[in-house]
User: Fold these one by one.
Assistant:
Number 1:
Amino acid sequence: MSGIRTYHQTDLRVPPTESNHLVRQKDMIEYVAGLTKQPVRVALTAPFVGAYNATAMTLTQATPGELVVDGVTLALNDRKLVTAQPDLTQNGIYIVTTLGDTTTAAVLTRADDFNSSVDIINGIIVPVSEGDSYGGSRWKLTAATIPAELDVTNLIFTEEIVDFTKVVEMTFPIVGDDTKELFEFEHNLGSLNVTHEIRDDATGETIVALFRRTSINDVEVEFGIPLAAGDNFTLIIRAEVDPA
């Protein structure tokens, strides 16, 4: 991939601005329209008691109060997945646009990536970042009718369950040295199907890179540009031992 290294981005906390920059998972999600949405902070699995305004695309709290969901006190602009409205057409991804307190009703507004019919893709996945019960979970959308229509189609979100007692996980360090962009690793998972995640040790964020399985027990990770000294990542390789 020589010839494109016109800029070397070393701080992965900064959103990419050049085509050859490393990207965080959230930057990729924002850039690429696909089946995985940008993560929400929490998932609400009980009804949000309030009034829905289809014109403003808002849910307004019936009784003013602080927004606490799954043990997390929400802040302005937090993303929240609503899964259990009695009117299923109201489910979806919302942003906290007004904080609630003892006198002010909290207001949720549909997020920019879930406020039109074209955003409602059957099978989309919504990752959840925090929460006592649902932090780290993933929720899949099933739309009752295809194509789906916002505020008309029933939207059903179901938590994806993984039996982690059947999952083998191996970790490998990736250490930048200003020269190396291709890293090779060997595991012992044989013919099992494997998935991978590359995590920034400093921030915990997921990093996007090219992952190739070169043989039954060998994989390569390629970043496209040399990793800077101080870029310390962890490669996590997982396999489900008994998927049945």
Number 2:
Amino acid sequence: MPKGKAARIDLSNDERDTLERNVRRRKSAHALSQRSRIVLLASEGLTDGAIAERVGLRRETVGVWRNRFVKQRLDGLSDEPRVGRPREIDDAEIEAVIVATLETKPEAATHWSTRSLARKMGLNQSAISRIWRAFGLQPHRAEVFQLSADPQLVEKVRDIVGLYLSPPENAAVFCVDEKTAVQALERSQPLLPLQPRQPERRSHDYFRHGSLDLFAALNVATGEVIGRVKARHRSAEFVQFLAAIEEQVPKYLAVHVVLDNLSTHKTPRVRRWLQRHPRFALHFTPTHASWLNQVERWFAGLTDQQLRRGSHRSKRELRAAIEAYIAKTNGEPKPFVWVKSADQILRSIARFAQRTLDFHRKDA
């Protein structure tokens, strides 16, 4: 072929269909889409310079992909393996690191560090760190959990999830709970504001100015919140809060309330109030399963966005901050979307329990 003359490209029907599909598909890699377009334009007889102007690349780059396609057809549009430094750690060594991380512990310690495991395995710290990242291993982290031992776990899960996924007609469903002993904390020194490359900073110590209790009811259907801030947390205040819900729900609707097993929810005073208001039905979560109560997620937002980094010089300021967050929620309400069925949740609990049992049997 004479120097400087572009190679001619003739496409079969299958090749053209594949190239056009690569260009059209939104999930195609950008590079593959661009190379496919180069070949399609080349098949129309365009020069490398004309194609380069169309696709926004250098003429030399267009020539590379034209010639790659001529020699290798569709396979030539994929990236070739890059030349790099050969691996120094083989698969057996990687497996040994993973097994040691998961199944052993260092002497006089509860978990491995990159340095301690590197010494044991005869590798460097960076290699251990890369292997851990590749396989998502984080020995330095630990979380807490609590499996529910409630004998009515299955029945309660099905009951509450049924309210979320298929609420009864002519009824309002509320998730109710209390955030107790919310402290009014004033930082001992002024806050240092956020700056480029420097996070917001606050003093670690504080002055206490008392605490308040927040009663909240999340409307599952609308995302709106009924909230009351109280000075104390007793069954008397809980009954007052139920009365507040009663006032705001239309009389023709039944009221279903999801709540936990706190003793203040089951006192004679509460039972008498429920007898006088038969449209209320309480649905208790299983013990150690507050994650079933959607209002807990709203409490997490309140803590993260308003309370944890706040500084309140009095209970009045704390009350105002809480009520401002409730007003913001109700100004733009957005319900949480529950997606897991009761069967999916119960199967997940069963798998977790079985893995835990198998682990302890193996160690026994």
Number 3:
Amino acid sequence: MFNKDYFSELILSKLELQKKHLLNQWSNPKKTQTKHFIVDNLLSEEDCLKIYKSFENKKIVWKVRKSFRESKNTTAQVDNFDSIIPAITDAFQEKKVVDCISEITEIDEIEGDSSLYGSGISSMKKGDFLNPHIDNSHDSNRQSFRRLNLLYYVSPNWSEEKGGNFELWDKKIKNPKTIISKFNRLIVMETGPNTYHSVNPVLVDETRYCVSNYYFSNKSFNGKKYYHVTSFTGRPNQKILRVYGLVDNFIRYVASNYLNLKRFDHRKILRK
């Protein structure tokens, strides 16, 4: 029986062991302006394989996302999986793990999000992709800024040739840095107004699984107040999608602000 304490201790041990190296990675990003670090062999191979095999539960109901923005399956209902899936997901939310990552990234006052707003589990099969985008800037209540994205990959023998790899883009969204979605690899990246990232199309008849988590803070990426929805654009050769993305992002931004105002008005009525 796996539990979050078991995994959080292993994660913390690996982070502490590599802290100096990870701090250097974070402070000196290459081929991208987005700060990030990579931890390989986060857990034992045996434990990671058990996590992967738990994803193969055919009874799980995935939420299918298909549009010009993305093609993938997701779920935040981690409790529907075997105990190992909620255990590994919750382990990243443990305060000691959050605090250690806070030290490595030198971002003060970050907190986990046990509600898994925007995070959870994802699966990507042949043809699936995630176009360049920036993440939603806030938590569900718009009280805290989204600051860190944690991605843990568990599909065995994953190589660059299979596609489905993580990408971090330069400021002009022209040249990506490709990071292989390697088995037992953790990627931690900072999120902000210009931290564009993506996943290139999966090219093989295999499934790429990922456990994702977000961390939040009352302090923003640049010390300023801002708000944006998850905003997509096309790849450099998708010029029409780049234009369409601007329109799509604006419409969803306006809709999000309208719905937030409605929620605010509702809260005022309840307080009267």
